[in-house]
Specification:
Layout lengths: L8 H25 L9 H13 L2 E2 H7 L4 H13 L3 E5 L7 E5 L1 H22 L4 H16 L2
Antiparallel strand pairs: 1-3, 2-3
Helix pairs in contact: 1-5, 2-5
Amino acid sequence: MSRNFQGSPAEELALGAYIKLARAANSALAFARVGLEDAGLSLGQFAVLEALYHVGPLNLGELARRILTSSGNLTLVVDNLEKRGLVKRQQKGRDKRFVMATITPAGKRLIARIFPAHARRITEIMGRLTPEDQERLGELCRKLGTGE
């Protein structure tokens, strides 16, 4: 923490941990982006394709929650994937607010081709931690994220 900050010991500890968490997350995200850009995908676009590939069709609200993005951002991401023929929207029933996103055959081929290398990169960066550390990190992140 900055030597100019005059916070309490609890504040200094919390801010120091937060900075380390943010730096680690940024480093992991940068590592995860490698290869996706070669496929012309943003991390958000990859997240949509990956969710639809592994889970199946999802309504846009559930998809936004699953990939941790806003509905406004998801609309843009899905628009761009739809333009490339990788995802399509389908309206279910008469309620125009209930729209399903599905992955197209072209989207399936793309994600099937790039996902194995992506999984290897994530395994590589997480391999900096022992399996026990990875488990503990998962527990700590869940605790931080849910407050439980």
